[in-house]
Specification:
The chain is mainly alpha-helical. It is built from six helices and five strands. It has a three-stranded mixed sheet. The radius of gyration is 17 Å and the shape is globular. The two termini are about 20 Å apart. The N terminus is likely disordered.
Length: about 200
């Protein structure tokens, strides 16, 4: 990947986690309150709106600059090791995580415990996608429509009490993972805007 700085910044290792005060906020407010009280329709609408805005903003950036890494200021919910990414890296990460969360939600809703360990370090972008924007445009719009259609099938229940562990939030139900799928995109939309603001100007 290209870089807009002269040398690699010294950041924490991937998977090191969030600052204590952020983890406290996640575990004492977001998980027990926000993730449970946010209406399902709101999570869906937020995801669709943010996906559209993200695509629009990145499309406006010349393709040759989408691989330029930019060091952004700390953002709530963004691990320190993730602060030096490119727009392509953001999209690749969103694709990896969203597909994983989609699988987790559907398994939990069917009453099954996902045979998947959520490992923050393993979902970082590797720069191996040819055109992440094209892939994201094919996957993200309509994701929640596809998800809701699958959840409407017999034997599926978004309110299932079965849980799966997230390393930061702790144990989450299918409904909470559904919320997190939308919330996670919002964190990286803020990151993408910060990256765009830091790109070199012609």
């Amino acid at each position: 990947m290209k870089s807009n700085v002269t040398r690699e910044p010294q950041l924490q290792r991937p998977g090191a986690g969030l600052p204590f005060y952020q983890l406290l906020y996640l575990r004492m407010w977001l998980r027990p309150v926000v993730s449970k009280r946010t209406p399902r329709a709101e999570s869906k609408a937020n995801f669709e709106r943010v996906a559209g805005k993200l695509i629009h903003k990145i499309e406006e950036v010349p393709a040759e600059l989408r691989s330029t890494q930019v060091l952004v200021e700390p953002i709530l919910g963004l691990e320190d090791s993730s602060r030096f990414w490119s727009l392509n890296g953001v999209l690749e990460h969103l694709l990896i995580v969203s597909k994983g969360l989609e699988t987790i939600i559907l398994l939990l809703a069917s009453g099954k415990i996902p045979p998947i360990e959520v490992d923050i370090a393993r979902v970082k972008p590797k720069g191996q996608m040819g055109d992440p924007l094209t892939d994201f445009k094919a996957y993200a719009p309509g994701l929640f429509d596809r998800l809701d259609a699958a959840l409407a099938k017999p034997g599926m229940d978004l309110g299932s009490p079965v849980t799966h562990r997230h390393p930061w939030f702790g144990d989450l139900t299918a409904r909470q993972w559904y919320w997190l799928l939308s919330s996670h995109e919002g964190v990286h939309y803020a990151q993408a805007k910060a990256i765009i603001a830091g790109l070199p100007r012609p």
